[in-house]
Amino acid sequence: MVLELIAAAVVGIIILILIAIGAMYNGLVVKRNRVNDAWAQIDVQLKRRYDLIPNLVDTVKGYAKYERGVLTDVTRLRASLVSGSVQDKATANNQISQALKSIFAVAENYPDLKASDNFKELQQQLETTEDKIAFVRTSYNDYVLDYNNATQEVPGVWVASTFNFKKADFFQAPEGEKAPVKVDFSDLNQPQQPAQQGPQQGASSNTASKGAGKGK
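Request: output the structure for the sequence above.
Response:
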């Protein structure tokens, strides 16, 4: 009788442990799926930005013919936007954001480009896309934090290591990309400012005027 009770208790404990493990496993699956879903939303916006960039480059090229540097940079960075790891895409996305800011800043020096309906529409679409990326990035990082905590805390860490739940990467800007944007306009032809009249020139003019007055 005692052995039967002990055996029943052991079986009951094993069942409870299995239920707990199953609950933790299911919880980790739900958290991982949330991370994957949020990442899919970021990927959609990255793909949208990827598709908009060639149109922007062609539009700017037609007006700002001397801005090859910024156009080459954004075209080069575009190629890395849809490939690589989460952090690779995050780095490319932030670098493209800086390059696009340079293009929009350059447009201030070209009134015809700035007034172009096509340019204004592309600028609006890209800014909207960037806002959406920032919004979904916040949700994604929140889900990543929740998931990573669950996989690293006891007892979830035991289940995570047993069933190969790997740590998820945050979608964030590297430290170097958080510095203020510097836009270089050194290649633009700046109009020369007229030389200001110096004190000596003013004095000479006054002397000449007085001399002319005396001559009269």
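The domain at 2-183 is CATH 1.20.1440.20 (de novo design (two linked rop proteins)).
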